[in-house]
Amino acid sequence: MIRRFAFLALSIAALGANAADIAQPALKAGVLSPALPAPALTLDGTDGKPLDLDRFRGKVVLLAFGFSNCGEVCPITLATLAGARRKLGTEAAQVQVVYVTVDPERDDATQMRKFLGSFDPTFVGGVGTRAQIDAAQKSYGISSTRTVHADGGYSIGHSSSIYIIDRAGKLRAVMPYGHPADDFVHDLKILLRG
Amino acid sequence: MTRRLRIAWLLPLLGLLGAALWAGFAPIHVAREKLFEIPKGTYARRMSGDKVEILPEHIRLTLGLDDVLLLRNLDEVPQVFGPTIMMPGQSFRLPFEKAASYQFVCTAHVSGQITILVVDEPVMPWEKIRWRMRRWLGK
Question: Per the CATH hierarchy, to which homologous superfamily does domain A30-193 belong?
């Protein structure tokens, strides 16, 4: 009798686990499995505090890399993320956008704060020395290439994906560049309720 | 032409017609995820000068059929695939929803690049036949 009951209990538990797996809707973003702790950042935040991802624990973090003089990719990414936060309504308070510069020579905290603030005042930028930025890029597999123009100025081609870090600080997913705000809303709602 | 000879011609023809009708009208059932693995020792072999190609330089996916790319890093070192870095033992499941050609950085390649071509789902019979032929030929 006890054996039969134990078998029944195990079967129900297994069914419940399967149901949980099935019930978890697929993300639009690319999913990393198993999810590992997001690489730490040793940078300065544009909000005047050290940019430690641990302080956003409990929120879903959208992390991306770019620079304030970017004329193409970064404005689109930031406008998309700002749009996603607007669409989330009150749930947006549980989402933190972090944008790390790949151009520390030109982007200081003031410059980045001004740039990010034009999209959404809650966005936090990451700035630091060239060595600190290089370390951050390396830990997330970010590549960037500088192209010098005839007038002496330069532009930077860089990886443009958005890293999605869950409430527990794990790097769960990566959204390639070009997805609309609705795709972020879709995934954020899953992660905020999951 | 004798009756036996006529039948000898007719049977393969009917068989071919049947196969074409099946290929053009039967629903296509394939695994949604297209799996590629970066084997253990890839980095070490590369470092020793072996120009080993683990993944194809071009991967073709079809919307609605096999439109999810699944990569597994079985190597001992992290590997960068396009939008992300995969730690040893990690997998990356990337769904596609738009037909386009996607260029990604990929450290598992000697060239450092990988192209993912995502095409629309075959709807018309001749599109399905072409899709099946391509798959049959391993392209």
Answer: Glutaredoxin (3.40.30.10)
